[in-house]
Write a structure and sequence with these properties.
Elements lengths: L6 E2 L5 H18 L7 H24 L3 H27 L7 H8 L9 H12 L33 H9 L2 H19 L10 H26 L4 H27 L14 E2 L3 H7 L2 E3 L4 H6 L6 H6 L8 H14 L5 E3 L2 H17 L8
Parallel strand pairs: 1-2, 3-4
Helix pairs in contact: 1-13, 2-3, 2-8, 3-4, 3-9, 6-9, 6-14, 7-8, 8-9, 9-14
């Protein structure tokens, strides 16, 4: 499917988003606050940097036993996920600061996680946020033949067990970024004509990719192999454990937001039009969870408020809880869905339920 040929209907509840934007803008204007980061967000950034770099420093210079070394690897895994969810994510959406240079430099934190900021923005901002849950365009629901996230993909025999093995594969997510995914994406996005949307060239992208991977590999694998107290194989195990923790954590936040029974997975008609306004499509295919869990929300970068994030990706997540009331009231006023699971456990259970449905039945219509 060619992304340039797919459009959203302009006569399907299009008034909803206009009214919602007016109300959200009025909230910021009335309270005289910025849509971007505030002191609390800066403090969180410092905390997440410490969560990643403090155990790394201890691992390289102060650890005296394998027990301490392994604890450092696990903490780094949570630090990786925390930096990605709470810091990098906002910066690469342009939501961290009104100064694009600051967003750019803060977004480079992804290099410390083994990823590519260019590829991330294309996959996440350009494809996922525009074509949420559209099969063939949203790469977040296209993990390859090994899993089935969409009812419009072919169902294979092994998929009937995907609700069991999914979490092992989720644990490989960030490791695959580092090893192979970024290179494959760079070539694919160049063929799709998307590399230029990030103000770069394919040649520059590959060069930055190679240099950043060497830097990351040196920092998180080569140096521990040299300086950590345990034997070489223990550092390799720790490195893999770090990535497994980060991958599972990230998947546990992003997957229950879109691959759940309430999601619609829209299909364009013959003329390439999706029967929904863009904002309405976000409501049909996105779900919140654990809105009352303040500490949890702090760590995951407010991404338990996925509905608000998808409707306003250029607003710093520090404001999502406050604007969620406006979004919910407006959605219900226009008789549109506002999906939200009361607890994180319920969201994970519903995601697992959806994996089972998609793995065992050819069709999995949305449950509202």
């Amino acid at each position: 499917m060619n992304f340039t040929s797919v459009k959203f209907a302009k006569d399907h509840n299009e008034v909803f988003y206009k009214v919602l934007r007016q109300r959200v803008n009025e909230y910021f204007k009335t309270n005289n606050i910025s849509r971007h980061a505030n002191p609390a967000m800066v403090f969180k950034t410092i905390c997440m940097l410490f969560l990643y770099f403090t155990p790394l420093t201890v691992l390289l210079f102060f650890a005296e036993s394998k027990t301490v070394e392994f604890i450092c690897w696990i903490l780094m895994g949570f630090g990786m996920a925390g930096l990605g969810l709470s810091v990098m994510h906002d910066a690469n959406h342009g939501a961290y600061s009104k100064n694009e240079k600051i967003n750019k430099w803060v977004g480079y934190v992804l290099f410390f996680l083994g990823g590519s900021d260019v590829n991330w923005r294309i996959q996440h901002n350009v494809l996922h946020h525009t074509y949420t849950n559209v099969t063939g365009l949203d790469e977040d629901i296209n993990p390859g033949a090994v899993m089935r996230f969409s009812p419009h993909e072919k169902r294979r025999y092994m998929h009937r067990f995907q609700h069991f093995y999914a979490w092992f594969l989720y644990g490989l997510m960030t490791l695959m970024w580092f090893v192979s995914k970024d290179y494959k994406q760079s070539y694919r996005y160049e063929k799709m004509g998307l590399t230029g949307t990030q103000n770069t060239t394919f040649r520059k992208q590959i060069l930055v990719l190679i240099v950043s991977k060497i830097f990351y590999g040196t920092l998180t694998l080569a140096l521990p192999l040299w300086l950590a107290p345990g034997p070489w194989w223990f550092s390799v195990v720790g490195f893999l454990a770090m990535h497994f923790v980060a991958g599972v954590t990230l998947a546990a936040i992003f997957q229950p937001a879109h691959v759940v029974p309430t999601s619609d997975f829209p299909v364009p008609d013959e003329s390439g039009v999706i029967d929904a306004d863009w904002a309405v499509n976000q409501l049909y295919n996105t779900a919140n969870f654990a809105p009352g869990a303040r500490i949890f929300s702090w760590y995951v970068g407010g991404l338990n408020y996925q509905v608000e994030h998808h409707l306003f990706p250029n607003i710093c997540h520090i404001h999502y809880r406050k604007i969620s009331k406006i979004v919910k009231e407006t959605a219900l006023e226009y008789k549109l869905p506002y999906h939200s699971y009361k607890t994180f456990y319920r969201a994970l259970a519903e995601h697992t339920r959806q994996l089972y449905r998609l793995g065992n039945f050819d069709s999995a219509p949305a449950i509202h």
